[in-house]
Amino acid sequence: MIKNIRILPGTNKDGIKENFSYIDFNIGELYTIVGNTGSGKSRLIKDLEQLVNKDSVTGRTVLIDGKAPSFDVRGETSKHLIAHLGQNMRFVLDKTVGEFLLLHGKCRGIETPDISAIIQVANEITPEAISETMNLNTLSGGQTRALMIADISCICNSPIVLIDEIENAGIDKTKALHLLLDSNKLVLIVTHDLHTALMSEQRIIMENGGVKTIVNRTREEKTLFEELNRAYQSRLKLQNSMRKGESLA
Amino acid sequence: MNKMIMILGAASVGKTAVIKWLVPFLKEENLNPCLCKIDCLYTEDSKVYQSLQVPYVVGLSEDICPDHFLVSNLCELWDWKEKKDCDTLIIETAGLCNRCCPATENTISICVLDATASTHSAKKLGPMVTMSDIIVLTKIDMVSQAEREILIWSLEKLNPTAKIFPVDGLVGYGVESLGRCILSEPAVKTYEEDLLRHTMPSGVCSYCIGEKRVGSAYQQGIVGKIDFQKENAL
Ligand SMILES: Nc1ncnc2c1ncn2[C@@H]1O[C@H](COP(=O)(O)OP(=O)(O)OP(=O)(O)O)[C@@H](O)[C@H]1O
Ligand SMILES: [Mg+2]
Q1: Range(s) of the domain holding residue B112
Q2: Could you tell me if residue B146 is inside a domain?
């Protein structure tokens, strides 16, 4: 069982070395990654997923429990350790939802995945239901992401979960995170959202392709998070009423 | 350390992008690569190739099938490589039809597939996929992790002995692993008496030699016809 994943610095978009000697991510912790659009957030978690060894644009290195996985096995290693919800809003695979889940189950050593149960999970986070016979290509952005999340939650039993933005596409963030977060896992969430960013004890600030700083959540910020949480819940209720066409005030 | 590498694949799957990263890697490793691009009428890759600063030749097959054309020129290409004092000859094929596979026993044959286009068509690619030593999957950042896993898994079924490398041609990810694999492949002494891995489609029919008229009366040689007994009942 792995305990930690470490990232060694690369260079930012101007080729200047990042200002840290290493960053450790530990199993059982949640981290968030924030920064302007284009600042390199997605690139950072792709580096982690690909277990890069100086061979991405950033030149970063990723170590697992202190060691760089060898080039031959890193594909397999990554598959076993890491589940990555990318920023994609579309599938390109020309298969039905049922075929997709069956195939992905087989890839990950589950011969007979419970397809209807997984679809039910997806349908809890997207209001417009997905069915087994739908073609992947016809799913909406939100349905696509709901299915990807259900797939990660039910089929990928990986100790590391990388999430590139959960709040877009109109899915239920709380329910989605509930499915993905697990106190035994290492979770990294890329976000533009204040409320999500304050969920973690540590947040990584990205700028110009490099890690700018890492900020620890203060006690005051934790109180702020609880306030934001209440506001988020009441906002969610209003949003649902809005979608139903009800009067809001 | 002499080697011949064939980069096979359909149009616009990213063959040139792979070569663009591979050549600098090989040079770093103190090898002397040279390049040949086979195309039919015209090639657009010259700019990229020239920027790599290695000996470079274009072979335009014009009226001949480019894969047949390539095989007919293998020994000449090998001699050209020797004359240029190079050790690694990289050939990028035109890659138009999926039936021909110009790879020979002694070449390192690398089949390049586009991750966004291959998810249900890999089977159609025939000998190019099943006979390759190495399969490179490009544009991997355009598909989800789950789709990529499914794709790799189905390629492993089609060709259990091939090594498969996911590559992101825009940023060069994966090319170093690919390059190391190429370095570990055995060297070759000569191309005389080398053998194709798979037969080419059989010819020759009237159209191969310039016939333009349509209709059975004009068709001589090896002619295939659709079997209408197999028509799907509606
Ligand atoms: N250190 C770096 N050096 C060079 N290029 C980089 C670096 N980091 C990121 N990039 C490139 O910059 C572009 C934008 O980065 P990325 O997609 O990670 O941004 P982002 O923060 O996720 O933006 P968004 O919020 O819009 O999703 C990408 O093409 C990425 O490959
Ligand atoms: Mg992003």
Answers
A1: 3-184
A2: yes
Q: What architecture (CATH level 2) is domain A4-217?
A: 3-Layer(aba) Sandwich (3.40)
Give yes or no for a contact between B113 and B122, defined as CB atoms under 8 angstroms apart.
yes
Tell me if chain B has a CB within 8 Å of the CB of A22. Answer: no
Q: Which ligand is nearest to the CA of B172?
A: 1
Answer yes or no: is the ipTM higher than 0.90: no
Strands (E), chain B: 3-8, 33-39, 56-60, 88-92, 108-114, 134-138, 163-166
Structural domain count, chain B: 1
Distances (CA, A) of A10 to A16, A62, A186, B141: 8, 10, 22, 20
Read off the CATH number of the domain in which B169 is found: 3.40.50.300
Of the residues B145, B163, B165, the best mutation for testing chain A's interface (the one with the most A CB atoms within 10 Å of its CB) is: B145
Q: Please write the tens of the pLDDT for every residue from A95-121.
A: 999 999 999 999 998 999 999 999 999
What pTM value is reported for the model? Answer: 0.86
| Interface contact B173-A52, CB threshold 8 A | yes
Q: Express each pLDDT in B102-159 by its tens digit.
A: 888 888 999 999 998 865 666 677 888 888 999 999 998 889 999 999 999 989 999 9
* Structure-token match 């000998």, residue found: B127
B160: in domain: yes
Query: Quick check: A132 pLDDT over 70?
Result: yes
